Amino acid sequence: MGCVLGQHDESGRKERVIYYLSKKFTECETRYSFIEKLCCALIWTTRRLRQYMLYHTTWLISKMDPLKYLMESTALNGRIARWQILLSEFDIVYVNQKAVKGSAIADFLASRALEDYVPLNFDFPNEDLMCIATTEEDPQEGHPWKLNFDGASNAVGNGIGAVLISLNGDHYPFTSRLDFDCTNNMAEYEACIMGIRVAMERKIKVLEVYGDSALVIYQLKGEWETRDPKLINYRRLILELIKEFDDIVFYYLPREENQMADALATLASMIKVNQPEDVKPIQMSIYEAPAHCYNLEEEEENDDHPWYHDILRYVKNCEYPDQATKNDKKTLRRLTSDYVLDGEILYKRRKDQVLLRCVDAIEAKKILEEVHEGICGTHANGFTMARQIMRFGYYWSTMEGDCINYAKRCHKCQIYGDKINVPPSSLHVMT
């Protein structure tokens, strides 16, 4: 197998080749089908070029789509299941191959594969671990504080943010604006240094540091080499600061789990501050419903008229609502063409000239209960309920939506309903 990793410029016309890779299939891999060989080559490529593919969108140009085969495979054996999990951390987009010459280099590398290749180990660490035993100790003694940091560098400015989390779960946010030119990696280091110094001021000896920059985290852990001259001094300074701690550990954290520090850094980079400003700790609340919902409920309680009140007034007396605009009057005239008044009862005329009685909210609620779970109720879904109600001769404007919501809230329908075993998308055989 062989692969070529290339990088396009902003115009997309030029391509700079970064890396060539090739390997020879092992004895067991030679017995794979063609599509499984493509999947194996893709997994092997992601393991070898992880540092390039982790932070960029990768276009996969191939004769067939191995991603679709993995996601829609009917037999999830151990090999395919492992491949799916290993590919989940990358942003890979399949692109159709438009020309044969585009894969000429990859085909050449596949024909000149290395002979002394050692196969990669796709096993997950600690997968044979049965249990973990912990010893009893003081819950406060040696329990680590947590530090989340992040930096932001954009066209407006540069900012850093850090959140220190105590033993009890209390959050202490810190943020600063950087008034000098720096890169995003320099801002990440600045945020880490600020958070570590804050922890030192609080006499914290055991600390867990979390950041969403893999470059900074793995350089501080010593797994990656620091080559950028701008970052060497930052790393040296942090290594001197961590000597003040009894135990400090660095962990990589995905960006979606580091939202608090990211928000603080973005806030500091977007706001222009002339002098240091002291802002009290931010208290965050959770609203489960929009603020206007309570006002709407009060208006509905005070409004004693049914939903068809304006239509009834126009059909009966040709009166428009108060404060109605010209467009509102035109819309009302168009709506009333489908309604018929018989005495004091308003009817809705269907396309087949069948008349449906218009009911208010109280009557609609009773009809929903009777049709869905009454004596003759069948616990049907929302669309079937709406058709049954119209066959019974009743109508209101939000009938179909009310039927769907009522069926979703029915407790018995959720308990005794049939389980849906049909896959969400159609399955296609790729081999």
From TrEMBL:
Residues 141-270 form the RNase H type-1 domain. Coiled coil: none annotated. InterPro entries: DNA/RNA_pol_sf (IPR043502), Integrase_H2C2 (IPR041588), RNaseH-like_sf (IPR012337), RNaseH_domain (IPR002156), RNaseH_sf (IPR036397), RT_RNaseH (IPR041373). The keyword NADP does not apply. It holds the Pfam family Integrase_H2C2. Signal peptide: none annotated. The keyword Hydrolase applies. Keywords: Endonuclease, Hydrolase, Nuclease, Nucleotidyltransferase, RNA-directed DNA polymerase, Transferase. PANTHER family: RIBONUCLEASE H, RNASE H TYPE-1 DOMAIN-CONTAINING PROTEIN. This is RNase H type-1 domain-containing protein. It comes from Gossypium arboreum.
